[in-house]
């Protein structure tokens, strides 16, 4: 009798994603209690904006969203940080997390995810490449640094297939 590895059901994926989002939101609210002037910034759009560490050390932001991981469908992803050198970002992430400011990655797509499997593949990629996953063979662009969460940045007019909804839940 051969054992096969089954993919988690969409219900399991939604449940895990909800727990991760709830944990990140809880951490962020605990860090930000009793603060005013809370500002979130999208970082990574322009090389001349300075390093991630500089953004955190400025004291201006209570959360930073790195932009963007572009999703092209069919398992094709491209991390676009507008010329920022990736080799320094892992250390910057760890430095910033020691300060207690949450950091997430914005996922952008002008494409729908045509199937539930596409949504599961995206979740698997995000978990193993940027969050707490440890799957062998998955490239982690920031080394062993783990991001605190994911932001889904959907362009106006993005086809909202059922798969995006399952990721959003």
Protein model, in words:
The chain is an alpha/beta fold. Helix content is 38%, strand content 19%. It has five helices and five strands. It has helices spanning 10-32, 52-57, 86-99, 116-129, 162-168; strands at 40-43, 63-73, 76-79, 103-109, 149-154. Strands 1, 2, 3, 4 and 5 form a five-stranded mixed β-sheet that branches. Helix 4 (116-129) runs parallel beside helix 5. The chain is globular. The N and C termini lie far apart (36 Å).
E-strand count:
5
Distance between the termini: 36 Å
Summed over residues and divided by their number, the pLDDT gives a mean of 76
Largest sheet: 5 strands, mixed
Low-confidence stretches: none
Strand residue content: 15-25%
**Class by alpha and beta content:** alpha/beta
| Number of DSSP helical runs | 5
Q: Secondary-structure element order, as H and E?
A: HEHEEHEHEH
Rg computed from alpha carbons, rounded to a whole number of angstroms: 17 Å
Name the shape in a single word. Answer: globular
The oligomerization state is single chain
Percent helix, as a range, is 25-40%
Strand-helix topology:
Elements: H1 10-32, E1 40-43, H2 52-57, E2 63-73, E3 76-79, H3 86-99, E4 103-109, H4 116-129, E5 149-154, H5 162-168
Parallel strand pairs: 1-2, 2-4, 4-5
Antiparallel strand pairs: 2-3
Keywords summarizing the entry:
169 residues; 19% strand
Overview in brief:
The protein is α/β, with parallel strands linked by helices and 169 residues long.
């Amino acid at each position: 009798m051969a054992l096969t590895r089954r993919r988690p059901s969409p219900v399991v994926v939604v449940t895990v994603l909800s727990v991760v989002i709830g944990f990140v939101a809880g951490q962020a609210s605990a860090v930000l209690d009793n603060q005013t002037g809370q500002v979130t910034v999208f970082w990574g759009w322009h090389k001349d904006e300075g390093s991630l560490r500089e953004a955190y050390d400025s004291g201006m932001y209570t959360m930073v969203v790195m932009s963007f991981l572009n999703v092209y469908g069919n398992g094709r992803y491209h991390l676009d940080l507008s010329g920022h050198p990736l080799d320094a970002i892992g250390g910057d992430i760890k430095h910033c997390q020691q300060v207690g400011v949450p950091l997430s990655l914005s996922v952008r797509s002008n494409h729908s995810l045509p199937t539930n499997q596409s949504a599961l593949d995206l979740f698997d990629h995000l978990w193993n490449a940027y969050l707490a996953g440890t799957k062998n063979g998955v490239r982690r662009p920031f080394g062993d640094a783990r991001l605190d969460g994911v932001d889904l940045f959907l362009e106006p007019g993005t086809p909202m297939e059922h798969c995006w909804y399952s990721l959003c839940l």
